[in-house]
Amino acid sequence: MGVEGCTKCIKYLLFVFNFIFWLAGGIILGVALWLRHDSQTTNILYLQLGDKQAPNTFYVGIYILIAVGAVMMFVGFLGCYGAIQESQCLLGTFFTCLVILFACEVAAGIWGFVNKDQIAKDVKQFYDQAFQQALMAESETNNGKAVVKTFHETLDCCGPDNAIGVITPLWREDLCPKKDSIVKTVFETSNCHKKIDELFSGKLYLIGIAAIVVAVIMIFEMILSMVLCCGIRNSSVY
């Protein structure tokens, strides 16, 4: 005997929420894959300065997002099927998966909040080391110059700060993006520290919005799944 009345409404409401959850998982998976293969981040974070690799903290977060997106799609499908079939077992499994996923999201959110400034800081330190090597006479013996040029061309910047960014292209044209004139070089050259901050803060902001939306949906789903499970149990008694 199927559920009736308000419980039936909850059943279809849960199905709709799970479908949205499944779509959200697909969107997060797609966004994570886009961030993983975005030309700006890949050009910078695949760089190697001698034996030192560029910081990979950002990619750790991206791999977590890929895993979360894939799990969300599976859990969303499980919830849809459990709601339609009115299966207490599937709904119980779905609720357990949601609790685990929610706990993981909270943990990932805390990790991301703690490391959000560290990501940009590590990349800026890596850039500064490469920039110093590129200015040295023996820079041709290492790949410091190539690393710096990749930063400059990818982010359209020059130098770690405004003062150095203006002066450097005037005597090291081989390191900085070329402008049409000296005036444009002086007034349009951005420092790379600022560009690095903008690059990662913008992407982390996008990830944060997606995480908040998903967390709200998960809370509603946990409540609805428990109410529906109780409704199915009561209807089976009668």
UniProtKB/TrEMBL annotation:
GO MF term (any one) = lipid binding
Please give the CDD domains that the UniProt record associates with this protein: CD81_like_LEL (cd03151)
Q: Any stretches that span the bilayer, and where are they?
A: 12-35, 56-84, 90-114, 204-228
Q: Does the keyword DNA repair apply?
A: no
Per UniProt, the keywords (alphabetical) are: Adaptive immunity, Cell membrane, Disulfide bond, Immunity, Lipid-binding, Membrane, Transmembrane, Transmembrane helix
The intrachain disulfides are 157-192, 158-176
What's an example GO cellular component term for this entry?
basolateral plasma membrane
What's one Pfam family here? Tetraspanin
Write out the annotated subcellular location: Basolateral cell membrane; Membrane
Recorded topology in the membrane: Multi-pass membrane protein
Name the family the entry cites. Belongs to the tetraspanin (TM4SF) family.
Protein name in the entry: Tetraspanin
The record lists the organism as Pampusana beccarii (Western bronze ground-dove)
Q: Which gene encodes it?
A: Cd81
